[in-house]
Amino acid sequence: MPTLTFMVAYSDPKPAELPQRRESHVCHTKQPSSTAQHDTHTGSHASKNCNGTTTSVKVTELPTLEEQQQDAIAVGSKRDYVLHELLDTERVYVKDLEILVAALAIPLCKYAGPWAAQAEQMLRPLQLLFSFQYRFLKSLHDCSSVSATAQLFSINANQFETYIDYCGAYHWLNDLLERLRSDSEWPGFINAFQERVALYSDKRRLSIGDFLIKPVQRICKYPLFLRDLLKHTDVTEEPNTSKVLEHSLALLRGICDGVNQVQQRIDSLKLRHRLISSYFDNPELPLSVVSKLGEVVLSGP
């Protein structure tokens, strides 16, 4: 609540006549009715001391019961907004996963030819994600409180680790798609993909890459939802809910850290592959030895 300062200034009253004995330097105190006034409405008080200066008192108003209720409603509305946003975006996300599996994963495994087994292995995490997120959406829809929502993330921590596998396969899958682009039948595959997408939604203009990146983007958003819920949860009033939110937030952040570590490891492996590919064999350090080396730690010109 704001702090209110009330200052009341009065004009000096007519000086009283002093007695003849000046040697007695006594400060005569005025009556409160003439030099001081109390505001009975706000509880503020202002007066003049014996030196003629004005003294003011700051009064902090306590929130009324109605104001406290309004604050509680505002906090509850913010949490409800986060929960609705989480659920609404989850519906859209699961639909995108369904499109990925039906319009890309299954047809691509048939189209890849000699790379069919490799494509199936890379797309396996995507199919697992769709199966998990479909069940997760149903459970999320049944959650009636912030605590239940946070608990849902916590009990599915192991399932969320599938995102680490997917993000690892995602980069190699992009490499496979790059090789397939040189195939003469690839444009026909893309047209068929867009037609299949149109059967599910109006996102026909999105490319394969636009769909493949969605799980990577989604796993990074979950901690943001949990952080906002925790921000609008009073730990003194809901200690158990706050504790579950903190635990779930830590778990999801750990998953995101795992995704980043996979990204760094893949970047290192790709760099190693490029260095080996450009390596000129020599008797002192044959290529067979270089190929057995581990990840690149440091490189430069």
Automatic annotation (TrEMBL):
Domain DH stretches: 78-262
User: Could you tell me which residues belong to the region Disordered?
Assistant: 10-53
Return the SMART domains for the record: RhoGEF (SM00325)
Composition bias type Polar residues, residue spans:
30-53
Gene Ontology cellular-component terms for this entry are: cytoplasm
Sorted alphabetically, which SUPFAM superfamilies does this protein's record hold?
A: DBL homology domain (DH-domain)
Q: Which InterPro entries match?
A: DBL_dom_sf, DH_dom, FYVE_RhoGEF_PH
Which residue positions does the secretion signal occupy?
A: none
MF (Gene Ontology): guanyl-nucleotide exchange factor activity
For this protein, the record's PANTHER family field holds: FACIOGENITAL DYSPLASIA PROTEIN, LD03170P
What is the name listed in the Swiss-Prot or TrEMBL entry for this protein?
DH domain-containing protein
Q: Give the originating organism.
A: Coemansia guatemalensis
The root-end lineage is:
Eukaryota, Fungi, Fungi incertae sedis, Zoopagomycota, Kickxellomycotina
